[in-house]
Amino acid sequence: MGKSAKIAIVIGSVVIIVLSGVIVALVLRGKEGATQGPDVDPEQRNLVMSSENEDDVVAEMTNTDYIPPGYYNVKMTNEWHFANGGATSEDAYVINDKGNTNDVYFDVVLADDEDRVIYKSPVIPRGEELWGIKLDESLGAGTYECVLIFHLVDGEQNTVSTLRVGVTVIVEG
């Protein structure tokens, strides 16, 4: 075996070791703060990376949605319709995606008067949905540009991050 072949083998080995280390670091970073509750896939939990399956592991990691701690994936309707100011909306909903890392609650304020809170939600656990929204303040007929201020909370319901999303509230009559 020539000198160049030995160098190529050493370089190839170093590249494989570095690539394996990077993959392990990415997997560990993606699992930080995660708990192994009922939503954890047992096959992923028992994953062992080897040189034979590293391509599969990399492909799986790049195809898996990851929501970092403190971030929030919003799933909701952008227009909320109410038959009248005291009615419950049939199309307003907010989903706290099970991939999120925090429970959440939100306040709805008028875009032009953010001191005026028209709705305060309960805490929505990860993976749960809120339907049947009825405003805390009865509004007259009209269209209102509003802001939902999401509060991502920790286990003691302390706010760790906030997120603002626009929503249109339409009161029919």
**H-E string:** HHHEEEEEEEE
The percent of residues in helical segments reads 10-25%
> Outline, from the CA principal axes?
rod-shaped
Number of discrete helical segments: 3
Total count of domains: 2
Q: Which consecutive residue ranges, at least 5 long each, have pLDDT under 50?
A: 31-46
Mean pLDDT: 80
Would you write up a description of this structure?
- The chain folds into 2 domains: 3-63; 74-171, Sandwich (Immunoglobulin-like), CATH 2.60.40.
- Helices cover 25% and strands 31% of the residues.
- The protein has 3 helices and 8 strands.
- It has a 5-stranded mixed β-sheet, with no helix packed on it. A 3-stranded antiparallel β-sheet has the order 1-3-6, with no helix packed on it.
- It starts with a helix and ends with a strand.
Topology:
Elements: H1 3-31, H2 42-45, H3 54-63, E1 74-76, E2 79-82, E3 94-96, E4 103-110, E5 113-120, E6 129-130, E7 142-153, E8 159-171
Parallel strand pairs: 2-8
Antiparallel strand pairs: 1-3, 3-6, 4-5, 4-7, 7-8
Helix pairs in contact: 1-3
Features:
Immunoglobulin-like; rod-shaped; 173 residues; 2 domains; five-stranded mixed beta sheet; alpha+beta; three-stranded antiparallel beta sheet
